[in-house]
Amino acid sequence: MSLREMAQEIDATDASPQKIKHHLMQLQKKGFLLIDRPRGVLKAGAENPGWAKGLMDKAKTLLRIPIIGTANCGPATIFAEPNYQGFLRVSSKLAGVRSPDGIYAIKADGSSMNRADIDGRKIEDGDYVIVDSKIAEPKDNDIIVAIIDNKATIKRFIRDDANEQVVLKADSSYDYEPIYLHEDDDFTISGKVISVVKKPTPK
Questions:
Q1: What is the pLDDT of residues 72-95, one digit of tens each?
Q2: Which structural domain, as residue segments, surrounds residue 9?
Q3: Where would a tag sit more exposed on the chain, N or C end, judged by fewer CB atoms within 10 A?
C-alpha cells in the first residue's frame, strides 16, 4: 500500500505522503510497528513489543467520564438537566469500572452524605461521585442520585414497604431531615453511586 493509499484509508486525502510517513516513523519510535525498510513492509509490534503493549494497556485504564453538573447533598436545590461541564479523566481503578458506558460523574455539593462510605471513601463537599446510570432499580441502603422535581440529590435509598413509602436518607455528621416519597410521586433514580473521586487534600 502506498503512502497516498494509506491517507485514503484514514480519510486524510489532503495529507501529503511526507506527513503520513512522519506519522509512521512516530509510531515506530513508540514501538507500535516496525518498518522493514528494504521491502517497505509494515509489521505490527516492534523490537520491544512489551513496551508498546504497556502503553496501550495504560491508555485503556484512563477513562473519560462526562461531568453532568452538581448534585446538592442537602436539599435538592440543583437542577439536574443534562449540563455537561466537561470530562473527568480518571483511572479505571479509581472509577471502579473498566468502561465508561452508562457512567457519569457529578460533583457533590454539601455535607449531608459525609458519613456515607463507598469502598472506604466518604462523600464530602467538592468530591466527584461516579454514578452508574444503568442501575435504575437500587437495593435497600444503596447510595443513589435521585431526580426530584427536576433537581438532583445524593442520598441513601430505603424502601419502607410497611408504610408504602420510599425514604431518601442523609448520612451526615449534621442533622438533615430525610425526604419521604410515595412510589407514585414524580421522582427518578438516575443511577447508583459506585465510587468517589476525592478532591485534592490541601498540603
A1: 777 777 655 556 778 899 999 889
A2: 3-47
A3: C
C-alpha cell at 97: 469500572
Instruction: Looking at the structure, tell me whether residues 148 and 74 fall in a common domain.
Output: yes
Residue positions annotated with a catalytic role: 112, 155
Q: Tens digits of per-residue pLDDT, 109-141?
A: 889 999 999 999 999 999 999 999 999 889 999
Buried b (16+ CB within 10 A) or exposed e, 152-163: bbbbbbeeeeee
C-alpha cell recorded at residue 200: 485534592
User: Would the pLDDT of 13 be above 70?
Assistant: yes
Phi, psi of 28 (to 5 degrees): -65, -40
Distance, CA of 83 to CA of 151 (rounded, Å): 12
Asked if 7 and 13 count as a contact pair (C-beta separation under 8 A), the reply is: yes
Question: Partners of 88 in the beta sheet?
Answer: 65
Cβ(109)–Cβ(71) below 8 Å: yes
**In the predicted structure, residue 190 carries a pLDDT above the cut 80:** yes
Nearest to 157 by CA among 173, 149, 146, 148: 146
Cα–Cα distance between 49 and 87 in angstroms, integer?
A: 31
